[in-house]
């Protein structure tokens, strides 16, 4: 009976384990140094805000693993010896594998800022990060102000978390507008206003120069690059993106770049060693997708795929149309297909925004053929299935706008805006 | 591993004032309970209820109107009241005690015995009862008034909390209306019609058998029949409510039309109980217990009702066509019809549960046959039908639905009765699972397994377990409150009535992955 060892108990590793168990009776071991059981990383924010407790973030009850004979080992892998197929742990013990899946996820980016390793300076990724947050920012007496560096999805979640405990937040964003590397102007600017409405001190065009320490090695203040202004604070959140968590592979035979290099079958350069999820770097990118995708569902899909390959049914990782979602304070966001911050060459954007400034959509389409390329939707829920179908059918912009009602996924009795959107569309059409 | 529980945010000074008002209102009631005699009961009661109402309204205004529209669950697990802390336990003990007194020692509330005038708390409600029905108050009138006030004021709070969500708002206005009109006002006005020759039983029209387990007891049926056409119409309405109206509405909308839009128990759970919805047990164990318990109660109530009706019917077809024998045969035929239909058309969906269903069915049928052969006028086997009725009333009607069901809100969550005990919910759930267009649709591959849906499901359904598999949620216990959909940060869940085809859609791989892989694994 061959032994599959999975490093990392996040969504990628656990999905792989579940599917391998469904397909085979191989021995399966999942290793994690973070927590004993799989929990949903995306729910860390809700623990801090008091919506949930840690135990609620576990998608499977604790008996699940034994019942499905999936062994769990809480340990930290120091290095991998691929020639003898052995993992060495920091505690000194080791483990043999026949097939190895690397699913170690990400770690927060640090860009060499002075003071970035001080106490009270951290990202928000792991359970340990959450524990530390409780130490350095439990309330607004211990933490009189927090500074967040980096305007992405984790940054805004961290801001929402801290605000839920009435901690004043200064939010440093390098870009001219929030997340405008990804979002078109209209959406990004709507979010700027939404962030400010939530009493978050949003500073655009602002870079961090330095984090200043007090006499105990704890953060005391930050200094802003552009103005030299010093802002006193008790906590600094580093949320300028994440990168693959693969430090332990440095002196191994496994080829790494920014992530673990894999081919379309999620195989590394070493036979029987695979990498999936946030830590995998595709040698050959898939469509417009980036070579490293740190997204929940891509981790899950890679887990589903690699399980097939490992169980003898070799499958390439071939994700379908891009989609994603997020929530910015009170505004939900979904995207299907590709909408770029600036329309791609030959492409155009159709934009509609509700006067209440919390709902809008942007559709990217081809200028000449009018083919629908993708949609961003804020404050209106849409159906994944419908857009997946429309993308396959290469529907036109007009078709999508006329049939938008079919894609609506808002709860019953919600006000719908298809008419307004259609009117806006017609006006823009006649004005061209 | 575990974190020390962070402190909940302090409440604002406005909220403190609001709390004080509410507590003063409750204090007046407790003074009455201690037999303090107020000179003007009408005004005292008005003042007390207004203080409570005003307190809740001010509190809710300050808690929600100052903040932006959206999900408001901050600090839920830090607050003592809503996280089984000291306040939670104290509230649970006070509520439980109240229910025990209400059901078993109503004289402690001041109910006048043997025609004596009321004293204490009950007497405080006399003026209001006189105004509505022309009769002095009973302990049930006191309870009904407080119950209605609770649904109205906490309904208001709920409306503010979910003011971004029209489904929640309309649903809540519906339960507030049904409680005020159908459960409270109409029966009181109906009592005004009563005279020596005409006596309608107290009838909350939306309270359907078997939730209303006593609806077909002899004294009520006698009353109905003696009250001429109106009475007969009400009796017939009682029968078609469960056999015609319920199946049609449940087929079209799922059991939510009743459980979270109309029902009084559901109404209280959704309004006053909203702060405790996350306390329901989501474990698989709890689910197994739920299924045994709720169906056992259902079997119990069917047998009990059959026995009670059986005892007051006659043997003689000359007197009335519906004799004991015919009645038992009708019950048996009806159950057989249901059983056959399910086994023929839905056996596959029923899966392993088919065996349990079959066992349950045969137990009932054998009991019915036994009833026929081994019973006397009042006895079934050796048990008096009255004993059966009384023990149901005590164990299920009082202890389960009241003392545990509501008293334990702050400990076990707000839907303990609805989930583990309510036979009406069992019937509706059975229909919802097998013959309904209702489901909660999962939105493709968008789920991130965060678990908000499961956490806030008051029925203890592990919604995430379905959502993360891309599978629709079709569960008999779902009352369609819509909170899972509301709290989902990624827009994954939607309550819908759609065609029966493809309603249950088990998947191996979710939408978004390789089309070939999906085809390979999902086509079964």
From TrEMBL, chain A:
Database matches in InterPro entries: FAD-bd_OxRdtase (IPR050260), FAD/NAD-bd_sf (IPR036188), FAD/NAD-binding_dom (IPR023753)
Residue intervals of the FAD/NAD(P)-binding domain: 3-284
GO molecular function, one term: oxidoreductase activity
Keywords (A to Z) from UniProt: FAD, Flavoprotein
SUPFAM superfamilies the record matches: FAD/NAD(P)-binding domain
Cofactor: FAD
Family membership noted in the UniProt record: Belongs to the FAD-dependent oxidoreductase family.
Protein name, as recorded: NAD(P)/FAD-dependent oxidoreductase
Species the sequence originates in: Oceanihabitans sediminis
């Amino acid at each position: 009976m061959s032994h599959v060892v999975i490093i990392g108990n996040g969504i990628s590793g656990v999905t792989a384990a579940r599917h391998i168990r469904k397909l085979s009776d191989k021995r399966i071991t999942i290793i994690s140094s973070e927590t004993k059981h799989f929990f949903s990383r995306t729910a860390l924010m809700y623990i801090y805000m008091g919506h949930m407790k840690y135990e609620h973030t576990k998608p499977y009850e604790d008996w699940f693993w034994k019942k499905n004979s999936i062994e769990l080992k809480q340990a930290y892998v120091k290095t991998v010896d691929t020639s003898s197929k052995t993992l060495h742990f920091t505690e000194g013990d080791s483990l043999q594998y026949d097939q190895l899946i690397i699913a170690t996820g990400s770690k927060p980016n640090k860009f060499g800022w002075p003071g970035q390793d001080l106490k009270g300076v951290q990202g928000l990724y792991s359970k340990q990060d959450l524990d530390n947050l409780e130490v350095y920012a439990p309330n607004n007496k211990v933490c009189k102000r927090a500074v967040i560096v980096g305007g992405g999805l984790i940054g805004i979640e961290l801001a929402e978390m801290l605000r839920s405990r009435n901690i004043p937040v200064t939010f440093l964003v390098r870009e001219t507008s929030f997340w405008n590397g990804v979002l078109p102007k209209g959406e990004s600017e709507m979010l700027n206003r939404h962030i400010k409405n939530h009493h978050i001190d949003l500073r655009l065009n602002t870079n961090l120069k330095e984090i200043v320490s007090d006499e105990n090695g704890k953060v005391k203040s930050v200094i802003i690059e552009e103005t030299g202004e010093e802002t006193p604070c008790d906590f600094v959140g580093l949320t300028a993106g994440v990168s693959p968590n693969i430090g332990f592979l440095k002196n191994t035979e496994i080829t790494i770049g920014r992530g673990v290099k894999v081919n379309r079958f999620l195989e590394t350069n070493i036979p029987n060693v695979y990498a999936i999820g946030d830590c995998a770097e595709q040698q050959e990118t898939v469509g417009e997708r980036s070579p490293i995708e740190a997204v929940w569902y891509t981790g899950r899909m890679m887990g589903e795929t690699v399980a097939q390959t490992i169980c003898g049914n070799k499958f390439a990782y071939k994700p379908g149309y891009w989609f994603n979602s997020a929530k910015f304070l009170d505004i939900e966001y979904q995207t299907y297909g590709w909408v770029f911050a600036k329309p791609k060459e030959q492409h155009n954007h159709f934009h509609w925004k509700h006067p209440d400034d919390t709902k809008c959509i942007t559709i990217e389409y081809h200028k000449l053929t009018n083919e629908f390329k993708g949609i961003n939707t804020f404050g209106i829920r849409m159906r994944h299935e419908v857009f997946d179908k429309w993308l396959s059918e290469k529907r036109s912009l007009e078709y999508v706008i006329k049939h938008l009602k079919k894609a609506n996924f808002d709860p019953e009795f919600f006000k719908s805006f298809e008419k307004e959107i259609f009117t806006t569309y017609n006006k823009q059409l006649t004005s061209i | 591993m575990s974190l020390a529980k962070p402190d909940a945010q302090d409440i604002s000074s406005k909220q403190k004032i609001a709390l004080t008002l509410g507590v003063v209102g409750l204090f007046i009631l407790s003074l009455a309970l201690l037999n303090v005699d107020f000179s003007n009961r009408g005004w005292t009661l008005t003042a007390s209820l207004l203080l409570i109402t005003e307190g809740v309204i001010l509190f809710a205004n300050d808690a929600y109107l100052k903040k932006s529209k959206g999900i408001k669950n901050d600090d839920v697990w830090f607050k003592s009241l809503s996280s089984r802390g000291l306040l939670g336990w104290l509230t649970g003990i006070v509520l439980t005690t109240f229910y025990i007194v209400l059901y078993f020692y109503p004289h402690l509330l001041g109910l006048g015995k043997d025609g004596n005038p009321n004293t204490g708390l009950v007497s405080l409600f006399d003026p209001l009862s006189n105004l509505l029905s022309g009769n002095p108050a009973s302990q049930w009138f006191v309870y009904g008034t407080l119950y209605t006030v609770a649904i109205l004021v906490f309904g208001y709070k709920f409306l503010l909390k979910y003011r971004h969500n029209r489904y929640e708002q309309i649903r809540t206005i519906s339960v507030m209306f049904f409680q005020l009109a159908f459960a409270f006002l109409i029966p009181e006005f109906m009592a005004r019609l009563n005279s020596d020759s005409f006596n309608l039983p107290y009838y909350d029209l939306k309270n359907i058998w078997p939730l209303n387990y006593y609806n077909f007891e002899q004294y009520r049926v006698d009353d109905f029949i003696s009250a001429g056409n109106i009475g007969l119409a009400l009796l017939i309405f009682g029968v078609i409510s469960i056999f015609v109206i319920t199946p049609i509405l449940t087929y079209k909308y799922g059991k939510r039309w009743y459980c979270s839009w109309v029902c009084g128990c559901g109404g209280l759970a959704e309004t006053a109980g909203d702060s405790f919805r996350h306390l329901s047990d989501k474990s698989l164990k709890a689910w197994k217990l739920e299924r045994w318990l709720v169906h056992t109660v259902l079997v119990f109530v069917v047998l009990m009702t059959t026995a009670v009706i059986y005892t007051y019917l006659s043997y003689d077809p000359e007197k009335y066509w519906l004799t004991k024998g015919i009645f038992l045969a009708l019950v048996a035929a009806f159950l057989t019809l249901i059983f056959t239909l399910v086994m023929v058309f839905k056996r596959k969906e029923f899966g392993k549960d088919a065996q349990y269903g079959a066992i349950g069915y045969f137990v009932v049928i054998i009991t019915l046959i036994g009833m026929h052969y081994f019973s006397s006028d009042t006895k079934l086997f050796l048990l008096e039908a009255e004993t059966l009725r009384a023990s149901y009333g005590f164990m299920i009607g009082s202890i389960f639905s009241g003392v545990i069901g509501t008293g334990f809100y702050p400990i076990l969550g707000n839907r303990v009765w609805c989930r583990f005990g309510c036979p009406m919910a069992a019937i509706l759930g059975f229909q919802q699972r097998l013959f309904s267009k209702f489901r909660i649709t999962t939105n493709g591959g968008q789920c991130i397994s965060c678990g908000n849906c499961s956490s806030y499901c008051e029925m203890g359904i592990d919604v995430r377990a379905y959502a993360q598999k891309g599978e629709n949620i079709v569960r008999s216990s779902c009352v369609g409150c819509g909170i899972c959909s509301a709290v989902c940060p990624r827009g994954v869940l939607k309550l819908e009535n759609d065609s029966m085809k493809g309603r249950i859609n088990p998947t191996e791989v979710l939408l978004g992955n390789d089309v070939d892989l999906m085809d390979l694994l999902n086509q079964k």
